[in-house]
Amino acid sequence: MSFRYGDALGASVLNGMSFRVEAGKQTAFVGGFGEGKTTIFKLLCGLYEKGGGRYLLFGRPFEEWNLEAARSCFSEVSQNIFLFPGTIRQNVACGKEDATWEEIVEACRNANIHDFIAGLPEGYETLVGERGVCLSGGQRQRISIARAILRDAPILLLDGPTASVDREAERKIQEAVDRAAKGRTVIVIAHRLSTVKNAERIYVVSGGRVAESGNHRELMERQRIAIARAILKGAPVIILDEATSALDNESEALVQEAVRALKGGRTILMIAHRPSSIAAADRVVRVGGC
Ligand SMILES: Nc1ncnc2c1ncn2[C@@H]1O[C@H](COP(=O)(O)OP(=O)(O)O)[C@@H](O)[C@H]1O
Ligand SMILES: [Mg+2]
Fold this sequence. Notes:
The protein is an alpha/beta fold.
């Protein structure tokens, strides 16, 4: 598929983007900011029409679908979670109008948020929104996941569910996603490879197209080999541009070790978005703004 926002003068956002999502499995898109990941979701749900190419939904050209029927195939947990002023129960139940009490609790259990809600003085009747209880980003994510589970659409889209939460919240969300994935097709957008370990297939998006694909282990190995190659080349300056951001803790530690071992006489420049990636640095420059 190809796509640009606005008229023909707009910059091309998707450019020969090609992928296949298998029903009943978890598929992930990983890539940097502004590479077109969220745009893929917008096209999948029919919020925008693709420019060129082909889009088959359950094997049928998207153009042949009734738009409402096509949209009902998806439930989405977006980057900006919207909770309306009301109770937690109402905010979950809006996923399904005739939801029973048992269904709501079951969805919240699966989304790993039931214990938290049950522990509040007013439980499911706690008010959220402007004048209600203040929820963390991770809690909002899990309420939104409960809503999506309740909606029970065949395809669940998750846009960066763990992007801006700490490790503990990340773990809870991850568990929720894995449970929600049972019997569903899940497509998840992530910033780091380590958060999509369970995906059957991962597409690395760059410049509006798929740069690489594979499972977690394959991509991790390729990244480690690329870093090893850069080090072995023997040049006086080695540049690691977010090279370890995608790695899991174990691989990251291996790279740190290699960097520490070879510092003698060589200059290493690292760009990172996590402090743990630059633990071996002699000097850290923090870049502000964008
Ligand atoms: N509604 C829009 N109108 C115009 N440009 C947009 C719009 N939404 C996103 N873009 C641009 O499209 C590109 C891809 O955006 P997006 O899909 O949100 O990236 P990602 O989710 O990978 O961070 C970016 O350059 C962004 O500025
Ligand atoms: Mg995005």
